Amino acid sequence: MLKCQKPLFSLDENVHYLNCAYKSPLLKNGEEMAKKALLNERNPFNLKPHSYFEISDEIRIEFSNIIHCHKNEIALFPSTSYGFANVFNNLKVTQVKAITVENEFPSGFFSIKKWCLENEIMLQTLTRNELSAKDWNQKILDSIDEKTNVVFMSSVHWMDGTKFDIKKIGKKCKSVGAYFIVDGTQSVGAMNINVKEFNIDALICAGYKWLFGPYSMALGYFSSKFNNGTPIEESWMNRTNAEEFNNLTDYDSKYKTMAGRYNVGETANFVLSPIMLNGLKQLNNWGISNIETYCKKLADLLLKQLIPLGIKFEEKNYFNPHLFSLGLPDYIDNLNFKKKLDNKNIYVSLRGKNIRVSINVFNNQSDINMLIEAVKSVLK
């Protein structure tokens, strides 16, 4: 069974960081990788042609192991917005309707909104209102029909942690011939995501949260539906002859096979890539299932103490142990409560009206107990 991994991070013992959904702390090994990478920049004569491609390939291998696909189906970006731009730049118009859910993260929402406007597609945003998580999921499934061109959504809602049944949604999309595009930022690395089993056509994921990577790196999966697409930029590095430095001015017009064509230019970010690779290797070493089990153990401690006090959480099948919101009584001002938590070195996020808590392997029972006591202190 996985134990607390806090010693692998530079977190102060007096800091209770329950906020990995905001940004993960760097692994100590990642810090050392970054320092070493900076020093390597001093001496560019050490860089060989293969240096521009090897580390990116290693990243693809590690990430493909996490989401269960082939490494050639993985592309590297500087951001999720870059990834979504590539996805929607290559989405074929086949029907008249697109579907998303309310309060999606802006990067993805703006991408699908723009695509819909450009192609005169109706964008249907499915609201939750007072629905349970179960009924909201059913509303999504019922809305997917033969008129649906694409469904875009997160696997876990970034604001409150609501779990979406993306396996069922992906199956429904496949049955009607709709694209299924997923933002995996708040799930990949913390829960099992199998892009093949879930019938996901494209998955885009930020690297700086649950993947323990740096800010300004993101990763994406592209199914075979995108194999012949056109990238949003013309880089020499996504051409088939990119590794032949002496032949670059042959101007090979052919893109790399599969997802390689969607890589950002200057793919081998020599400073950031080692941090990204280190994070992915560590995740594969721990095992995603073990991470899920560890987070559930800590979340269960919280639920056991707070549910009897009237704090509300998502129903069992739609509750994420790594990311969830506290359903505090209405008389509690969440903004003031968040400030009180900050003063106690308990770090969470306020998203909309939600106090969002996120647990990872660097957290321990002390972090959970501190949050429990803080909640109890504001209850009447």
What secondary-structure arrangement, pairings included, does this model have?
Elements: E1 16-17, H1 28-40, H2 51-67, E2 74-77, H3 80-89, E3 97-101, H4 106-119, E4 122-126, H5 133-143, E5 148-154, H6 166-176, E6 179-183, E7 202-206, E8 218-222, H7 273-286, H8 288-306, E9 323-326, H9 334-343, E10 346-347, E11 349-351, E12 354-358, H10 365-378
Parallel strand pairs: 1-10, 3-4, 3-5, 5-6, 6-7
Antiparallel strand pairs: 2-8, 7-8, 9-12, 11-12
3D architecture notes:
The structure is a single chain. With 380 residues, this protein is of the alpha/beta class. Helices cover 35% and strands 14% of the residues. The strands form three sheets. A seven-stranded mixed beta sheet has the order 2-8-7-6-5-3-4, sandwiched between helices. Helix 6 (166-176) links the parallel strand 5 (148-154) and strand 6 (179-183). Helix 1 packs antiparallel against helix 7 and helix 3 packs parallel to helix 4. It starts with 15 loop residues before the first strand and ends with a helix.
